[in-house]
Amino acid sequence: MKPSFRWWLVLAAGLFVLGMVLGVVLPGDGAGSLLSEELAAIEQLAGMLTPFTATMAVFIFFKNVMVLLVSFMFSPFLCLLPAGALLLNGGILSFVGAAFIREGSLGTLLAAVLPHGIFEIPAIVIGEAAAMSFGYTVLAILFSRGDGRRFFPGLKRDLRYLGIACAILAPAAVIETYATPLLLY
Length: 185
Known about the structure:
Layout: H1 5-25, H2 30-48, H3 54-74, H4 80-102, H5 106-143, H6 151-178, H7 180-184
């Protein structure tokens, strides 16, 4: 029997929170250097884009949607990509958050994350939960010798939640492009 989608949401949220904990606990180790490299690449990419432009909003939206789609497509490989994406996103959020707080800038952290994060974080959790559910369904069918009848209903449900997650990313991208820079400058 396939677990309910609520179970996948709890698992996805748990992995995101675990990533947040690891992002704070491990910054001096290899995880910290991995997150630092990831952040440097993001900063370099962000330097090429200009806030307050439709191009930036479209770029942010499609980048986030592509991450969810790739994660969904490759989830049958033991759900490693969705789990890794949740851990990495949680880790980056807490790693950056800890750096802001160390500098005594909780207000800047909240201004940078809250406006679009209210949409983006749930979208990531919902989208990656759909990816893990899909990956599990494929693996369960492959290793249970048959009964592919549950594939299409599960795929339909998972694609519906993936679509919801992608739709939630649209206002997140607009807010990140137009509102967040106003609060930071």
